[in-house]
Amino acid sequence: MTHSASDVAFTPTVKAIQVKRGSREHYAKAEQRGGWPTAITADLAGFLAEARSFYLATASADGQPYVQHRGGPAGFLRVLDERTLGFADFKGNRQYITTGNLAENPRAYIFVMDHALRRRVKLWGRARVVEDDPALLARLWPEGYKARDEQVILFEVEAWDTNCPQHIPQMFHAEDVGRTILQFQARIKALEAEVAALKTAQAGGA
Questions:
Q1: SS3 189
Q2: Of the listed ranges 13-27, 57-71, 110-124, 148-162, the one predicted with least confidence
Q3: To which CATH superfamily is domain 37-162 assigned?
């Protein structure tokens, strides 16, 4: 039997439902063309370099799922090689659900959303926690970011895919909007100064 990278998500049951609902032929053709990519491309690396947040999904040994948000400055989720992502894991509420899940089940999933440009990327793979590695932590630490370090999480990509922008609400980061507003305000002040200068010049020549 031929295997495709998308088999990580398209289980036999999923494929049976696709057959029933009429989409299996479409995905089968995609699989014949090579299916989902398994290596991190330049385009994907560029997308991840702009990400300021993502969701990391794990599950316990008995399959209990858990999703946790990870956030930081742009580029905190870093590409280490064509199959590996890594990030510094900051201290949080100290529940350690993700850490515990990965200790008994390495399967993991990353979901990255760009609301401004209405793009999303899904990555399947395996993750592991790395403790007591100062050199790796320093390599992954976002320069100047104020947080408490705890550990590193490495993610080995098995397959990834993108979604269409349908139904993604367009939203913008507050800091991006704030910078744009400041630029507009500065431009308005400059124009007001030009208008005032023109009025003064006209009044002086009257």
A1: helix
A2: 110-124
A3: Electron Transport, Fmn-binding Protein; Chain A (2.30.110.10)
The mean pLDDT value for 120-132 works out to 96
Residue with tokens 């850490």: 99
Q: What share of the chain is helix, strand, coil (3-state, %, to 5)?
A: 40, 30, 35
How long is the chain? 206
112 in Cβ contact with 50 (< 8 Å): no
Looking at residue 101, its amino acid is N
What is the distance, to the nearest Å, from the Cα of residue 144 to the centroid of all Cα atoms in its chain? 21
> In the chain, count of helices (H) and strands (E)?
6, 7
The single-letter code of the amino acid at 90 is F
**Cα(first)–Cα(last) distance of the chain, in Å?**
91
Token pair of 125, please?
A: 């793979």
The structure tokens listed for 81 are 């090689």
Residue with tokens 């990400």: 51
What's the DSSP call for residue 69?
A: E
pTM above threshold 0.85: no
Residue 165 to residue 49: CA distance in whole angstroms:
20
